[in-house]
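Worked example 3 (structure in, sequence out).
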């Protein structure tokens, strides 16, 4: 258990370090874009192609660095997940007994229902709730449907983030500090998208 806590601390420190490296690189890209913008907008001056080349080079470096940091963080989180699974091995032999869930049918049914909702099987969830005579809150179902709709937009062609940003903004207060962090992360991803598309003006806005 102690090693699990130590690894968790290491993972948290790595995440902070990775985030700071990404932010520093994004700041450099922004500065390069600002310099390029000023060279273009200054009246009566010849466009300085060097500043544009420098901005493009810094954007490429930023994109590569952020991708590397995300990849490395994902690998570390995956390794930590395996460590957690190895540490907390569950004895499921009790499940095989006929009395394992005696007087717990309602709780078990709700757990299965929540699993279907979290997996996005909404039709199956409603059918199961009706069959098991369980109440399924439409508000909860609509919330999961909205979430999966946003995920579909992100995973689809163009990786649309606007829906995710709106969702984060609407829930900023109820999620407290986490809401602000998520909203910022989504805006940062949108910024990188615009930079990659070559829309520097929209990225600056």
């Amino acid at each position: 258990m102690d090693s699990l806590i130590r690894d968790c601390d290491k993972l948290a420190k790595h995440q902070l370090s990775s985030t700071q490296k990404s932010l520093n690189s994004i700041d450099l890209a922004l500065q390069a874009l600002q310099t390029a913008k000023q060279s273009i907008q200054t009246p009566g001056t010849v466009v300085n192609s060097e500043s544009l080349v420098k901005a493009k080079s810094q954007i490429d470096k930023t994109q590569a660095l952020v991708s590397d940091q995300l990849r490395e963080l994902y690998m570390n989180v995956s390794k930590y997940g395996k460590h957690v699974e190895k540490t907390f091995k569950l004895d499921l032999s009790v499940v095989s007994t006929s009395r394992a869930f005696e007087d717990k049918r309602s709780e078990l049914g709700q757990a299965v229902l929540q699993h279907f909702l979290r997996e996005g099987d909404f039709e199956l969830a409603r059918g199961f709730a009706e069959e098991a005579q369980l109440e399924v809150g439409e508000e909860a179902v609509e919330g999961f449907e909205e979430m999966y709709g946003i995920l579909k937009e992100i995973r689809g062609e163009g990786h649309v983030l606007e829906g995710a940003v709106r969702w984060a903004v609407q829930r900023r207060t109820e999620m407290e500090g986490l809401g602000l962090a998520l909203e910022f992360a989504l805006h940062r991803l949108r910024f990188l998208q615009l930079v990659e598309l070559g829309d520097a003006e929209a990225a600056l806005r």
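Notes: The helical segments are 2-41, 49-87, 105-118, 122-131, 138-155, 162-170, 176-197, 200-204. The radius of gyration is 24 Å.
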